[in-house]
Amino acid sequence: MSKERVVLRVENLKKAFGDKEVLKGVSFDMKEGETKVIIGPSGTGKSTLLSCINMLVTPDSGQIWLEEEEVTSAKNINKIRQEIGFVFQDFGLFNHLTALKNVMVGLTKVKKIEKDFAKEIAMKELTRVGLEREANMYPAQLSGGQKQRVGIARALAMSPKIILFDEPTSALDPELIGEVLSVMKNLAESGMTMLVVTHEMGFARTVSDEIIFMEHGHIVEQSSPEEMFKNPKNPRTKEFLFKLS
Ligand code: ADP
Ligand code: MG
Predict the structure, then answer these.
(1) C-alpha 121 chain-centroid distance
(2) First vs last C-alpha separation in the chain
(3) 44 lines ligand 1 (CB under 6 A)
(4) ipTM value for the complex
(5) How many CB atoms lie within 10 A of CB 242?
(6) How far apart are CA 110 and CA 205, in angstroms?
(7) N or C: which end of the chain has fewer CB within 10 A?
(8) Predicted confidence (pLDDT) at residue 3 exceeds the cutoff of 70
(9) Which atom of ligand 1 is nearest to 45's Cα?
(10) Best mutation site among 48, 56, 90 for ligand 1, i.e. most ligand atoms within 8 A of its Cβ?
(11) If you measure from the C-alpha of residue 141 to the centroid of ligand 1, how many angstroms do you get, rounded to a whole number?
């Protein structure tokens, strides 16, 4: 698979809330099929960065491109948002809808896909995350791990160019984390382009192509998992990884 085509490019992105500078000039890119993990202390701007990528938060300056399209100057941001999957820490499911309907809703309401076809796509993605038998259950009847897998199926159903994950397993009981990480690992192996904020170092080490260490609104270090774990260059990275181990 080609890992050369750039799917996402972020260039000198800055964002402040009031007088608090949260992103202080962040630049990186994502190639097709690549999985990148962002690690770093809380309050460092990781969620803000992800939210800027689909313009849920408007950056103050800098540019974002999704393939050839500049997101930061887009006239039709809703069209671009359809191409960027988002998996949230708290799942973000509609509690009054079944798993199947949760996955279908973006297809029917946003993409205006006819109901039977939307159902077919949704079932395919629920099957991919191992939830074909739970299709007609409501979120309240599902475990946290199952809810998050519905969240992933919902993102997949839109055929996004990239999926952003913001601490997808942080809200889960420890025994449910593995099933979600395993689905994500399969996705990464299938060639999906994925940008994942997580504290799961095992996932970072074994699944990612590259790790970004972010602190205080800066990318401090960016390298392969081997480099990052065996030979972190920056003292801040060393300290962060040391605290985790
Ligand atoms: P992380 O995801 O790395 O924990 P965040 O991006 O959530 O960090 O937050 C970075 C900083 O920005 C924090 O100090 C947070 O309080 C602040 N922040 C985030 N969103 C907002 C907002 N909508 N309004 C004001 N401050 C915010
Ligand atoms: Mg966060």
Answers:
(1) 21
(2) 34
(3) yes
(4) 0.98
(5) 9
(6) 36
(7) C
(8) no
(9) 6
(10) 48
(11) 32
Q: Taking the model in full, what pTM does it have?
A: 0.96
Residue whose structure tokens are 């972020």: 10
Dump pLDDT digits (tens) for 160-201: 999 999 999 999 999 999 999 999 999 999 999 999 999 999
Query: CA-CA distance, 28 to 222, in Å (whole number)?
Result: 9
Q: What is the pLDDT of residues 31-81, one digit of tens each?
A: 999 999 999 999 999 999 999 999 999 999 999 999 999 999 999 999 999
Residue whose token pair is 């509690």: 95
Rounded Cα gap, residues 57 and 55, in angstroms: 5
Angle at which helix 174-189 crosses helix 144-157, to 10 degrees, equals 20
* Dihedral sign computed on CA atoms, order 222, 226, 227, 230: positive
Q: Are 84 and 160 in contact (CB under 8 A)?
A: yes
Return d(Cα 64, Cα 79) in angstroms, integer: 15
Pairing between β-strand 69-70 and β-strand 61-66 as defined by DSSP bridges: antiparallel
Q: What pLDDT score does 57 carry?
A: 97
Distance of alpha carbon 62 from alpha carbon 14, whole angstroms: 6
pLDDT of residue 179: 97
**Average pLDDT, whole number, for the chain?**
96
Q: Which residue has the tokens 């475990």?
A: 143
In the sheet with 69-70, reading across from the earlier edge strand, the strands are 20-31, 6-17, 61-66, 69-70
